[in-house]
Amino acid sequence: xxxxxxxxxxxxxxxxxxxxxxxxxxxxxxxxxxxxxxxxxxxxxxxxxxxxxxxxxxxxxxxxxxxxxxxxxxxxxxxxxxxxxxxxxxxxxxxxxxxxxxxxxxxxxxxxxxxxxxxxxxxxxxxxxxxxxxxxxxxxxxxxxxxxxxxxxxxxxx
Length: 158
Hints:
Elements: H1 3-9, H2 13-34, H3 42-59, H4 61-70, H5 76-102, H6 111-127, H7 129-134, H8 139-155
Helix pairs in contact: 2-3, 2-5, 3-4, 3-5, 3-6, 3-8, 5-6, 6-8
């Protein structure tokens, strides 16, 4: 691609930000759906979603960090999109929780609040990476920890 072709496609900084953000959002959505859609067991599906998100944040750490930290500085349309994708990712976790409640695997809880908490725990991994590195916490260990915390709440006494 020539520089002229590149400039015809990307007119300004806002176009570039839009391309970067939308590409990251698409990858995140596709990855979570891909790694959960064929998993039959509700608990395994939840763990697959947690691992997929964490592993993806390892591969795309700079994008995840940038996306979170710079969301407040994005143009209005991109800011709305950033909020929308965060809610969409929470919706994926919400559906997983609701599936577990419906299957009577998880006890009835405020599924939306639990989904928000999962998203916050996943964000903590890439936003505070140094904290976990200093504690020698590997991504696999953190994924198991998130699963255990969430399941202890969702599976606890009825």
